[in-house]
Amino acid sequence: MRRVDWMTAGPGGLPIPINVSWHLWPDCNLACTYCYATFRDIPGTLSERRAIDVLDRLREAGTEKVTFVGGEPTMCPHLPQLVRHAKEIGLVTMLVTNGTRLDPAYRGEIVPYLDWVSLSIDAADPALMAAMGRGNARFHALCLRRWEELAQVPHLRLKVNTVVTRQNLHDDMRGLIRTLRPARWKVFQVLPVAGQNDGQVEPLLITQQEFEGWVARHRELDAENIGPVAEDNRDLTGTYLMLDALGRFFHNKTGRHVYTDSLLDVGVWEAVSQVGWDTEGFLARAGVYDWAPPSEAGDRGS
């Protein structure tokens, strides 16, 4: 399928869910001050068997890539089995993680079946990371060693996610990004979401101009092909196809999470129709990129 066809190729002209961000585990082992994915409104999770069923149904509907997100997805006890199954049925696999649990033994279980690992790194300064709820300086040093080790895995493509808030607005990440040299660096403006981070995020919000200034300060990295792919609050609203821990698509177009029925109950296409994915916004924020493994790259495109 050509990359332009997926937007209307589903039943009744629905978009094919080519890339799904699956927030399969709501719990986290850190306490990031700005977190807009706390999922304190999610009443449970799926069993391994039903989670595998979710993957099979997505693949049957034409999904190309699944991104395992949280919370912290490595806290899910059956994540290695899910990643392996996703890879075996032909999905491109990505893990978004804070990296804290990626010790050598765990990496041995999961990394062989991952195409991408996306690290959540919000600052180069260890003290600042700690202030943002990401552990102490010793903890940060341990994570840095693990990040650098992951960057050396031949088949694995490294991505970095950074959220810009009032706390890290003046941090300089150019040196760290040059060390890690990710294939993709996503930079997000901190997003307020009712029911997720209201009551704590308000002092951390920044203006559009402040966000653009942070991005501009790092634009020199564009010349090295490691510059930021920036997404402001408009880009982050309605443009991601997100799935929750119960197999429900959800959107944030109203300023809070709104959930569909579970695709396990009503099927993928009914759930896609309920969520109303903003595919034009997805394209406008450069959501289509070459995500295929190097050996499969070609006419394939978050």
Summed up:
With about 300 residues, the chain is an alpha/beta fold. It has one domain: TIM Barrel, CATH 3.20.20. The protein has ten helices and ten strands.
Index terms:
302 residues, alpha/beta, TIM Barrel, ten-stranded mixed sheet, 10 helices, 10 strands, 28% helix, globular, disordered C terminus
Task: Describe the secondary-structure layout.
Elements: E1 19-23, H1 48-60, E2 65-69, H2 79-88, E3 92-97, H3 104-110, E4 116-120, H4 126-131, H5 137-151, E5 157-164, H6 174-180, E6 184-189, H7 208-217, E7 228-231, E8 242-243, E9 248-251, E10 258-262, H8 263-266, H9 268-275, H10 279-284
Parallel strand pairs: 1-2, 1-8, 2-3, 3-4, 4-5, 5-6, 6-7
Antiparallel strand pairs: 8-9, 9-10
Helix pairs in contact: 1-2
- Write down the domain tally: 1
CATH-assigned fold name? TIM Barrel
The CATH architecture can be given as Alpha-Beta Barrel
| Number of distinct beta strands | 10
Alpha-carbon distance between the termini? 17 Å
Content of β-strand? 15-25%
Described by the principal axes of the CA atoms, the overall outline is: globular
> Helices and strands: which structural class?
alpha/beta
Largest sheet: 10 strands, mixed
Binned, the helix content reads: 25-40%
Helix and strand element order: EHEHEHEHHEHEHEEEEHHH
**Gyration radius, rounded:** 18 Å
